[in-house]
Amino acid sequence: MKVDRIRVVGLAAAVLTILVFSTLIIKYEFPVFKYADTDQPPKLVENETGIIGQEVSRFLWDYRVIDLIAQAFVLFAAAACCVALLRTEERKR
Asked: Which DSSP string do the residues of 1-32 spell out, in sequence order?
């Protein structure tokens, strides 16, 4: 049985990507619910919608790693889709 080089390279790339993502996830914590407290009275909860863009921007600049991980995932998914679309299929006899 002949070894398909594209499958071997794809498998190696997938394993490497999983290792990189798991290392980043273990190394950096994701502070989504750090300030969430369900026991706060309604007076303390901000209802201001005018500063949402500023707060999201500040969050992404403060935690740049999260943004970079998302971008890396999107690039990897796009590359995998392009490879899947452009692969050559062998004719079955």
From this structure: -PPPHHHHHHHHHHHHHHHHHHHHHHHS---T
CA 37, chain centre distance (Å):
26
Question: Same structural domain for residues 84 and 41?
Answer: yes
Q: Domain of 82?
A: 37-92
d(C-alpha 64, C-alpha 89), whole Å: 40
pTM of the model: 0.36
pLDDT in tens, 40-49: 666 655 666 6
Same domain, 19 and 59: no
Residues 15 and 45 in one domain: no
Domain shared by 42 and 13, yes or no: no
- Give the torsion sign (CA, 23, 26, 31, 33): positive
Q: How far apart are CA 5 and CA 2, in angstroms?
A: 9
Tell me the residue length of the chain: 93
